[in-house]
Amino acid sequence: MPAQEIAFRRQKACVWEITGYDRNGQPVFQTSPTELDVRWNDTRSEVIDRQGNTVAIDATAILDRELKVDSLMVPLALADLPGDGDYGLLADGPLHIVVKFDSTPDIKNRARHNQASLKRYKDVTYT
């Protein structure tokens, strides 16, 4: 039986990892998304972000890898994304930004529980 930390990831999600910031301080993302197997939970709660502020989150995702804070995620398979590359349409729908990322090893340090706390993301411009 697989470890509880990596089992039951039966949903697909696409992620655009953040690569840095431009000279205006705006985030720069990967140009093409990566598809991941995740366990996506649309649950509202609150977390403490890296600045110590309480932030309301809209979803959590259990992943098999580490993910950078401020990356973008959408709970869709790669085949379900718009084929023309116009991802700006997602800004009105399921696009989320990673607000917090936690990675916790199991008691024997064999597997890790990776959880991303996500908030809906609306102000996106793709270039």
List the helices and strands in order: EEEEEEEEEE
Distance between the termini: 44 Å
Q: How many beta-strand elements?
A: 10
Q: Kindly identify the CATH topology.
A: Thrombin, subunit H
Binned, the helix content reads under 10%
Summing up helix and strand content along with how strands pair, one would put the structural category as mainly beta
Give the integer mean of the pLDDT values: 84
Q: Strands of the largest sheet, in order across it?
A: 1-4-7-10-9-8
Percent strand: 35-45%
Given as residue ranges, the uncertain stretches (5+ residues, pLDDT < 50) are none
What report would you give on this structure?
With 127 residues, the chain is mostly beta strands. It has one domain (11-120): Thrombin, subunit H. The protein has strands at 11-16, 18-21, 27-29, 34-41, 45-48, 54-57, 59-63, 72-74, 96-105, 112-120. The strands form three sheets. The protein has a six-stranded antiparallel β-barrel with strand order 1-4-7-10-9-8. A two-stranded antiparallel sheet has the order 2-3. It has a two-stranded antiparallel ribbon with strand order 5-6. It is globular and about 45 Å long. The protein starts with 10 loop residues before the first strand and ends in a 7-residue tail after the last strand.
